Amino acid sequence: MIQKTTIWKVSTVLLGIGLVSVLMYGCPSQTEMLDTGDAAQRVYVAPGEYDEYYAFLSGGYSGQLSVWGLPSGRMFRNIPVFSQDPESGYGYSEETKPLLMTSYGFIPWDDSHHPELSLTNSMPDGRWMFINANNTPRVARIDLTSFETVETLELPNTGGNHASTFATENTEYIIGATRFSIPYDMDMDVPIDTYSENFDGSLSFIGVDDETGEMSMDFQILMPPYHYDLGRAGKGPSADWVFFTTYNTEEAHTLLEINASEFDKDYIVAVNWKMAEEYVREGRAETVPAEYYHNMKDENTSVAVSNVHDEVLLLDPRDAPDMIYFLPTPKSPHGVDIDPTGEYIVGGGKLATVIPVHSFSRMLDAIDNDAFEEIINGIPVLEYESTIVGEVENPGLGPLHTEFDGDGHAYTSVYISSEIVKWSLETFEVVDRIDSYYSIGHLMITGGDTPNPDKRYMLGLTKTSRDRFLPTGPKQLHPAQLYDISGDRMEMLLDFPTIGEPHYAQAIPADQIRDNVKQIYDLDANNHPHAVKRTADARVERDGDVVRVYMTNIRSHFTPDNIEGIRVGDEVHFHLTNIEQDWDMVHGFAIKGSNSAEVLIAPGETKTIVWHPQRTGIFPFYCTAFCSALHQEMQGYVRVSPADTDVPLTWRTGED
Amino acid sequence: MNRTSRLGLFLAALLLIPVFFTPIWSITLTAPQYPDGIGMYIWVNDITGHERHDIQNINILNHYVGMQEIDPDQVPTLDIIPWVIAGLIALAAAAAATGSRWLAWIWVALFIISGVAGMYDFYMWGYEYGHNLDPRAAIKVPDMTYQPPVIGRETLLNITAHSWPYWGTLWVTLSLLTGTGGLFWDRIAKKKGR
Ligand SMILES: [Cu+2]
Question: Where are the transmembrane segments (chain B) (predicted)?
């Protein structure tokens, strides 16, 4: 057994070296040709013109979500989600800090991997974007009228939420799963080598309110202590099902690169979520203690509020028969992707030499025929032969993730051999391949994860740029490549650096979002408890050591702009209301010696930044956003006096 | 007056009613950063933005050169015009009802006087805005004066103002034409001895 594994490993490496040399020395002129031609014209969006698609790229270890135009590859915005953003004040302002609260306290950073647009009939509806936090497990919701993070929900019993976010047919659920199995009790202090005994896996089903988008931790499913990698909801005939990949079915807890790569097959998990939901409604789930945070921007005040929950519904497959199955799938599969018809379930066995394709209808037959190899923790393992309909040969080394063009083809990213292979869903044969630069992770086809893909563009999200751009030192940005897939052959159009490390992306035709985007926040609807809507109401109030500055911003002055009577040791809250109602007329606020960040205030919005003056003196503050011709004059002074001063609290603007 | 002429005057009265429901004038300001323009509508009794916040945004732009705030509550003419229009409707209706030529000609005279007075007031209103600038304004306009156009285009610094009649003026004009048309028809008919 061990010998066999070793032989396999050696041959993999040899094959790798072989392919790499083909890539490095094989017909460079052909590659050159594909890179040129009229590609420039096809990605050129003239000044003032709009792109066809919005593309949303996860930020990876930046914890953010960046917004781009396709085909131009121009970046429009970087939306802070799971990481503090000193540029905007996100995670620093009192209004946004609660969004980063977890049962582990305030978490200023995370790793965001897989964005997912909200769906109606399995098609993106342009309402919300969801994205996962991989490290301290969470899911966030971004409102696509404001492009702002409005909600975050922590996942209990989860050791890293990687197989997330993926939405069911009508966004009934956003799914999540634990990447690392852990003991469920969050404070459980056990020897790591009691892994199989004390550690568990979990799948999460996050309910989404159809009207408001508000998320709730509806229920979880208790799973064997494997690692759960990626997921997808079915569509069409398979719409009632969701699928996850597993690795480490070996249940290793150390040196996983060897120990979790031992078995020939791991599993794709198929869950009938409709049935699971029914079981939960019937009361078959157990209520277990679990501490987790739910943070949401209050619609009325626009201030995020944290709620702590202390229990979760947990469904054990042993109490819930016929809802969950294992489909054996070669070698630590990464992606599990469902073709547009909902029939094919494609595994991305990253260490496999083939791309395995399961059939959903055959899976149902196998379930009917009890074609089970064994049953693990109440979960039947279907026979590999009973569900598989094809194995794509010669896919390259390290197939990861697959999307579809709706025209009978699948496109799989292949990491180790740095390429994308296009293959037929009829013959399961490779029909085209193209290089990526370099080491591709996920790919994204416009609509390629929906029942109705646009056979237009494909984005390859690659991990290293090496020699592709002017060098910037040992660390360089992760690039993306844009391909035209409208013809028979894939053609590369563009190669551009991105922000953070995009793991996955989503695209949507621009007009599905463009017309709904807000230009201002309505000042009349601003019910922030510390808003001031008229300059005449601007003021400063003291309550013990807490000083509240109710300040207005309008071109080109603050009111008040001279403040005296602040004392060392005070906690000064600057409540800034931008009383402008003009699109993109943003003001900023920064004060000398501030320990936090600046804050940007959109028209009609109120934002609060807290300042702790440490010493006496005169402290200038100013507008950080170049708002107007007299922006440089948009400034003021705070006078800080000793703690025992009798300087009275005064404020003014425009008086001598 | 004959039936047709009276009908004309009656129609003239009716045509003045929609004037209350559509702006009579529109002023659009365009600038590099406002490619679609921002602007205001002048109604018989109000001044509103093309978009909800345009008046506020125009005031913010204007304050740099020291123009007074545009505040419909501070424009007395806007309290008077609705009564003038109402009076003209009543007079036309009365002339139509009684068939009095005398009343009808008074209507025409008052109509024209009010129109000219209105335009003059509008010009003076613009003159006030353009000439009564705050001497402490951040941006000094050369010669400290600016005459906003009553009709046509005029550029101040980077902003071009476009001022044109709007639907309300069409109704006013049609009303005058229909009413006087009726009167002339009456004269012609009388001459022909019908
Ligand atoms: Cu400013």
Answer: 80-97, 104-125, 164-185
Closest chain A CA to residue B138: A630
Measure the CA–CA gap between A637 and A443, rounded to whole angstroms: 52
For the entire predicted model, the pTM comes to 0.91
Q: What is the 3-state secondary structure (H, E, C) of B117-135?
A: HHHHHHHHHHHHHHHCCCC
Measured from the Cβ of residue A385, the count of other Cβ atoms closer than 10 Å reads 10
- β-bridge pairing A241-247 and A227-233: antiparallel
With 0-12 / 13-18 / 19 or more C-beta atoms within 10 angstroms meaning exposed / middle / buried, residue A462 is buried
3-state secondary structure of A524: helix
Residues of A in contact with B139 (CB under 8 A): 629
Angle between helices B167-191 and B77-98 (to 10 degrees): 30
Query: Residues of A with CB below 8 A from B39's CB?
Result: none
B139 with A582: Cβ contact below 8 A: no
* Burial classification of residue A571, based on how many CB atoms lie within 10 Å of its CB (0-12 exposed, 13-18 middle, 19 or more buried): middle
CA triple A389-A390-A391, angle to 5 deg = 145
- As a whole number of angstroms, the distance between CA A437 and CA A446 comes to 20
* Residue among B53, B64, B138 minimizing CB distance to A582: B53
* Angstroms from A652 CA to nearest CA on chain B: 19
Identify all chain A residues contacting B60, using CB atoms and an 8 Å cutoff.
554-555, 580, 582
ipTM comes to 0.84
One DSSP character per residue, B104-172 reads HHHHHHHHHHHHHHHHHHHHHHHHHHHHS--TT-SSPPGGG-----SSEEEEETTEEEEEEE-HHHHHH
From CA A314, how far away is CA A276, in angstroms rounded?
11
Mark yes or no for CB contact A630/B60 under 8 Å: no
Helix locations, A150-217, DSSP H: 195-198
Interface test with B, best of A535, A581, A656 (most B CBs within 10 A): A581
- Which residue reads 């029914």 in tokens? A278
Beta carbon pairs, A and B, within 8 Å: 21
Q: Is the pLDDT of residue B87 over 70?
A: yes
Q: Which residues of B touch A (CB under 8 A)?
A: 52-53, 56-57, 60, 64, 138-139
Q: What is the mean pLDDT of each run of 10 residues along chain A (656 residues)?
A: 48 49 43 65 94 98 98 97 97 98 97 98 98 97 98 96 97 97 86 94 97 98 96 97 95 89 92 98 96 96 97 97 96 95 93 93 97 95 96 93 97 95 97 95 97 98 94 94 96 95 97 96 97 96 98 96 97 98 96 96 98 97 94 96 96 86
Tell if the CB–CB gap between B60 and A580 is shorter than 8 Å: yes
Residue B193: pLDDT band (50, 70, 90) is low
On the CB side of A204, CA atoms within 13 Å amount to 33
d(CA A620, CA A516): 39
In B21-116, at which residue ranges do the beta strands (DSSP E only) sit?
25-31, 34-42, 47-49
- Look at the alpha carbons of B55, B56, B59, B60 in this order and tell me if their dihedral is positive or negative: negative
Whether residue A629 and residue B64 make contact (CB cut-off 8 A), yes or no, is yes
Alpha helices for A378-446 (secondary structure H): 384-387
Chain A CA closest to residue B60: A555
Q: Residue A261, preceding bond cis, omega within 30 degrees?
A: no
In this structure, the number of other CB atoms found within 10 A of the CB of residue A117 comes to 26
- Mind telling me how many Å the CA of A554 is from chain B's nearest CA? 8
Q: List beta partners, residue A392.
A: A355
Distance separating the N- and C-terminal Cα atoms of chain A: 89
- Rounded distance between C-alpha atoms, residue A526 and residue A530, angstroms: 10
Report CB contact under 8 Å: A581, B53: yes
Question: How far does chain B reach from its first CA to its final CA, in angstroms?
Answer: 11
